[in-house]
Specification:
Elements: H1 3-21, H2 24-30, H3 36-66, H4 72-91, H5 98-122
Helix pairs in contact: 1-3, 1-5, 3-4, 4-5
Amino acid sequence: MHKTLVIFVGMAAAALVPAIGLNLPPTLIDGTSLSMTNILFIPLAYMFVLPIALVFGVPMVVLFDRLNLVNVWTAMGSGACVGAIATIVIRLPAPPLPRDLLVDCPLGLLSGIVFWLVWRWNYPDRLPSGDLGSR
């Protein structure tokens, strides 16, 4: 698959994590079952999450790819940074609340892992030394 397509498929898959993750806490905390409202909220959340992933995530991937540093650690760090940036942008002009960062940064980190899995699936031989899963 062409590298540009891999990046966009990876970003699309990674954006699903926060779109779904933003729906699970009320269900898990209240102990209620997943309702139709929660399920219908996923595409709506995805429409807001995907542009943030593309605007902030693609430049990071391009930079790390140019430096041959796309690995699980840089993907997790970049995802957490994008989660923090998203929190800051959402809360503007007020400063972000710590509880927002405690939700968005881990979701970003998980999104980075999903992106890395898509990248690793398509480029299994492009592992820098010291990467997780290197042979």
